[in-house]
Design a protein that fits this description.
Strand order of the largest sheet: 1-3-4-2
CATH superfamily: Hypothetical protein apc22750. Chain B
Number of domains: 1
Order of helices and strands: EEHHEE
Oligomer: single chain
Number of helices: 2
CATH architecture: 2-Layer Sandwich
Helix content: 25-40%
Structural class: alpha+beta
Largest sheet: 4 strands, mixed
Radius of gyration: 17 Å
Low-confidence stretches: none
Length: 106
């Protein structure tokens, strides 16, 4: 499956548009990660725990979008867009949503 943030695939023709496909994953923050992230914020640097969580969440959303595209008979998804949101009463959850247009390319 070819995935692209652009509306076309270079040197390939889109022969059919199958529809919009999406994938969403919501994940709750973990107390241990929060404590580690707080410590990192105090001393500076990157928070590996949060970065890993964001990466896993993004990959899960991508996998869901790809499954939806495959069910429509697509072999590519173009114009892919990512959206990241902190949600929940105290910002305790993160949502990653990804969407694009499922297409058939030659």
């Amino acid at each position: 499956m070819i995935i692209s943030t652009t509306p076309t695939i270079q040197n390939r023709n889109i022969t059919a548009y199958k529809g919009i496909v999406c994938g969403e994953v919501i994940i709750g923050a973990h107390l241990g990660k929060d404590i580690l992230a707080s410590f990192t914020n105090i001393v500076g640097g990157r928070s590996d725990a949060y970065e890993r969580t964001i990466r896993e969440t993004r990959n899960g959303a991508m996998d869901e979008m790809i499954r939806n595209a495959e069910q429509l008979g697509a072999n590519a998804v173009v114009a892919v867009k990512f959206d990241y949101q902190v949600i929940g009463q105290s910002g305790s959850m993160m949502m990653v949503a990804v969407s694009g247009t499922a297409v058939v390319i030659d």
